[in-house]
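LOG
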Amino acid sequence: MLYEVRTYTLRPGTTAEFEERFAKRLPLREKHSKLGAFWHTEFGPLNQVIHVYAYDDLGHRTRVRTAMAQDTAMQQLPGGGDLIVAQEAENGVTEIVELGVTAVVGDVFVHQAP
């Protein structure tokens, strides 16, 4: 199982608008893959939203991203690109043997069940 974790830093004061747009697009997005988590910051680094999507493997992620790019219904709804000032992804390789978790370099994290 792969987990893609994305962190977006938004223009100040636009978190509510980003979340509203995200909510409207979510049913269309979930036709392709399910949302694993979504949250926003309220202290520390402000104006950030983080979301996580799970994929079966890298091939599944590629197929989902391709299908979303061709999804005309999704394209008709505004995304949040105009509200984003920075996108961040964690890079590194981590293995937690007890949980059977492995993270891949880049913004895709791999979970292997024990």
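LOG (cont.) second protein
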Amino acid sequence: MHEMGIALQVIEIAIASIPEDLRRARVARVNLTVGKLSAVVSESLRFCFEVASRDTPLEGAELAIEEIDVAARCNACDHQWTIEEPAFSCPRCHSGNITLVSGRELDIRSIEIEDEANDTTDAQQPDRGRSF
């Protein structure tokens, strides 16, 4: 199960990303994007994150995972589509000369911390706290 290694790396990166003046703040949420081809099982990653984050500033934080569909672009006819079955050929011209344009992501999009008034930061409302 490589999800534990991923969880440990997410925790390490998140802790290192907290600005020095906010080191005592509690992390409320970590937002990830995970492509469907990344071979990550979201529920396993959440479980590993919960276990590995104990006794860290991320203990109790939510791990929010946005799954990204597999999308491809045909190099022959420039058609772009979402791949929904294992056949990797262009549905328009049937060429196998394609480029994957999404689906392999594994990125930390943001880290949300609670401000001193215990309000959770919100990327849409930056006046309530901080999001990184």
